């Protein structure tokens, strides 16, 4: 079968399944999630054996140790995948919620009902646990899913897919509610992102180049997570101890994550009091500092270049800039940032209000570490990604981001005059 | 100046203006709207003179009378444009609203703040009043706007743009907050829809071919309004009198609108009781009926073809199909409809619940005319379009559809453990 034909078949099966899923009860969906979790545990050995094939193949391809680690499954990891499915089952079902019910002057009663998006396409790399996680979130939110994992994890993903299929069938839900693309042909992705008749939204999970490639080629909406160039601005009247603690945490709690701080902005009025101790904290932890010339007048460090202001290091490196005040800080963030997460440290009421209103990011924080920008910390229960778009879902995306709202009208025979 | 360079300049000016607008107070925005309304009335003669040029030119181009009517302005129409602006000023300001505030276990307090999208691009045809209406809605919702009207209305649009500019300047807002593209070069549209760095969303207003062309070429999200193939399903246990009245209204109240019924689905159990009287009501009003073979067994009418089920007539023509029951009705609507507005007439509780949940349309109604699907009837105060997408805004789009929500976090120095 040709790739286009194969993908169209998957899409058309998903579309049909999505209508059944949209009408499935909460109990049915939760039951399926538990059955899939049980199947994963019961078949852990089969999954791990399939995974060994992928890891061995990955070694011959020369994948680095970090990638091999992300790819690897063991019994512990399979169990935690199953645990994740049960947690999704325990979350409230977003579907069917009706809000904003009100009578209109015409006599009709109007509200908004939360409904699934339809069919969600997920395109991801290496980590096979995404297969189970993403399928669970889409299933709970009543969406059918087409999953396309990386070729390096194909055996693992197929083994997990078999468990999902078994759980769906046992629960009486359509087996095509979750489909894992079985070919490693690259053309499958091109086809998948250009069939709006079958797929309502694409969620890419992976590196920046993958996401840009998909965004550029897609003919359907994309919920995309690009860079996290997060800032903390230490304002003139920050509490110094708080500033040291929060800035330490925002940079050093974890380096390779999108909500880690990459640029520290310091108000010129507080720089001499704040920066020397801050620099000493970072240096004890081995963080390389790259500062503007004014920062260098206070503490000697590498001189930052223009490029540093728009770099997501994902590493123990921090750019530091002295700014004249709130205006310059906001301007810098809106110009060089990635609209992900930015924080101000201040005791000033007016400054906190302006920072909240004027910084154009998916999360804006006062006196807190940027590391809090995360679906679990925000109480979403789970996260399928962090959207740096403004459209539809913004910031950490949980179940609600996989839904839409339609208007519902209750009448007693009203006609329009 | 080259077109690309010109459009980039407009875009970059809009981006800068959007930051000022995002921080503008409700009072400033309302003041600007009133000043623009005053300028329109004060310069009505100039606007009408410019419009006469467009209408005269339109005649030489051979535009039909309906198009010329949509294009024409007179003092009455200019006044009602000004009235519209004042109405938008009187609507509540959506910007800055914070909802869902809650403390998280970490001690941070989390909420969602409503903010503008940024820069909205509007691409529209003939009606010059869109220039003022769309600018007003974008301004009120804190967005900068780039407006590209049809070449047939270029003089009218420029005259209205001058009033908008005057009002903005008098209110102390950036003159680039609303910009009307001054060239009629078609390449301007191609450029406008492919500059995501400057324009956050495109709203096309016009015929289906315009909207499809823009959707296909756009590199930014599009809030699009395609067909309105709306259905009414008269269920087995409908109240007959109510069904006649509602179906009459849904089809004949206005023919050329997107929320008019185009296909009537009738349950086989009620068809003999319902259809003869219904057909007689429609025929008195000159509506051409095109029915399936089973409908023809009850009332003689044109035999419908497969094409009729997916046609938006926008005319006194109605397709009629007899269906076996609720399942077939829902299936027909989800297959042939345009996900716009669909209604059921029934006294059965379970049928009404299933119809609401399973019909995948932006408005789903029980015992009411599809004609109610409209921003004013829904209490949005105004409408920039009706979205047939599921993503972001769905159904009638008012001020809220021109906004986004960002997460705001209030802390007292919290760090992540």
Largest sheet of chain A: 7 strands, parallel
Distance between the termini of chain A: 56 Å
| Number of domain modules of chain A | 2
- Gross geometry of chain A: globular
Q: Runs of chain A with pLDDT <50, length 5+?
A: none
CATH class of the largest domain in chain A: Alpha Beta
Query: What topology, given as strand order, has the largest sheet of chain A?
Result: 10-9-11-8-7-12-13
Helicity level of chain A, as a percent range?
40-55%
CATH architecture annotation of the largest domain in chain A: 3-Layer(aba) Sandwich
Structure summary, number of beta strands of chain A:
16
Order of helices and strands of chain A: HHHHHEEEHEHEHEHEHEHEHEEHEHEEEE
**Most extensive interface, chain pair and sizes:** A-B, 68 and 68 residues
- What integer value in Å does the Rg of chain A equal? 24 Å
SSE-based structural type of chain A: alpha/beta
Question: CATH homologous superfamily of the largest domain in chain A, by name?
Answer: Aldehyde Dehydrogenase, Chain A, domain 1
Overall mean pLDDT of chain A: 95
Question: What is the secondary structure topology, with strand pairs?
Answer:
Two copies of one chain form a homodimer.
Chain A: H1 3-22, H2 26-42, H3 44-61, H4 65-71, H5 75-90, E1 98-103, E2 109-116, E3 119-124, H6 129-140, E4 144-148, H7 154-170, E5 178-180, H8 187-192, E6 201-205, H9 208-217, E7 230-234, H10 240-252, E8 261-267, H11 271-284, E9 288-291, H12 293-298, E10 302-303, E11 317-323, H13 326-336, E12 341-345, H14 349-358, E13 363-368, E14 385-387, E15 395-397, E16 403-414
Parallel strand pairs in A: 3-4, 3-6, 4-5, 7-8, 7-12, 8-11, 9-10, 9-11, 12-13
Antiparallel strand pairs in A: 1-2, 2-16, 14-15
Helix pairs in contact in A: 2-5, 2-7, 3-7, 5-6, 6-7, 10-11
């Amino acid at each position: 079968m040709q790739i286009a034909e194969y993908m169209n078949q998957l899409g058309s099966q998903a579309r049909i399944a999505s209508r059944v899923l949209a009408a499935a009860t909460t109990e049915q969906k939760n039951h399926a999630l538990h059955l899939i979790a049980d199947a994963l545990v019961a078949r852990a050995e089969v999954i791990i054996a399939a995974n060994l094939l992928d890891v061995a193949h990955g070694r011959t391809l020369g994948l680095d140790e970090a990638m091999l680690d992300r790819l690897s499954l063991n019994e512990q990891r399979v169990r935690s995948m199953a645990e994740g499915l049960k947690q999704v089952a325990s979350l409230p079902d977003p579907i069917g919620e009706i809000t904003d019910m009100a009578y209109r002057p015409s006599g009709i009663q109007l509200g908004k009902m939360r409904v699934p998006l339809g069919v969600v396409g997920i395109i991801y790399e290496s980590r096979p646990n995404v297969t189970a996680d993403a399928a669970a979130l889409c299933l709970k939110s009543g969406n059918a899913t087409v999953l396309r994992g990386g070729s390096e994890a194909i055996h693992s993903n197929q083994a997990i897919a078999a468990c999902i299929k078994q759980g769906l069938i046992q629960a009486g839900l359509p087996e095509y509610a979750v489909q894992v693309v079985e070919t490693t042909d690259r053309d499958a992705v091109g086809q998948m992102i250009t069939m709006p008749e079958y797929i309502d939204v694409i969620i890419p999970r992976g590196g920046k180049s993958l996401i840009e490639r998909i965004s550029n080629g897609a003919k359907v909406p994309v919920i995309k997570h690009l860079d996290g160039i997060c800032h903390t601005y230490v304002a003139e009247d920050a509490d110094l101890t708080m500033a040291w603690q929060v800035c330490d945490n925002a940079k050093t709690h974890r380096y390779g994550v999108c909500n880690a701080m990459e640029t520290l902005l310091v108000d010129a009025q507080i720089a001499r009091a704040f920066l020397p101790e801050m620099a000493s904290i970072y240096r004890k932890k081995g963080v390389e500092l790259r500062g503007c010339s004014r920062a260098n007048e206070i503490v000697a460090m590498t001189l930052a270049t223009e490029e540093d202001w728009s770099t997501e290091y994902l590493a123990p490196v921090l750019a530091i800039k002295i700014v004249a005040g709130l205006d310059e800080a906001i301007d810098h963030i809106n110009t060089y940032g990635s609209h992900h997460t930015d924080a101000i440290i201040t005791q000033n009421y007016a400054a906190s209000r302006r920072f909240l209103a004027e910084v154009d990011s998916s999360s804006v924080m006062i006196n807190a570490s940027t590391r809090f920008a995360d679906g679990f910390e925000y109480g979403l229960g789970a996260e399928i990604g962090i959207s740096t778009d403004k459209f539809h879902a913004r910031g950490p995306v949980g179940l609600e981001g996989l839904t839409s709202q339609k208007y519902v009208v209750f009448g007693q025979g009203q006609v329009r005059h």
